[in-house]
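Please describe our next protein:
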Amino acid sequence: MSERVYEVSGMTCAHCVAAVTEEVSAVPGVREVQVDLETGRVAVRGQDADEDAVRAAVLRAGYTLA
């Protein structure tokens, strides 16, 4: 299993964390998502999770990758 860390801009509260977690978790290949609100970092663990799909999921949640 591999891990990638992304920086997401615009998250300010627990609702933001939940929205990003829900959308990114739905990406095929993603097994685990950890969001650190303070740093804006999102750790994605899984196998063969497409980076463009993760970016699209973050956008669907209403945020952008930095």
Q: What stands out?
A: The mean pLDDT is 97. Helices lie at 14-25, 51-61. Strands lie at 2-9, 30-36, 41-46, 64-65.
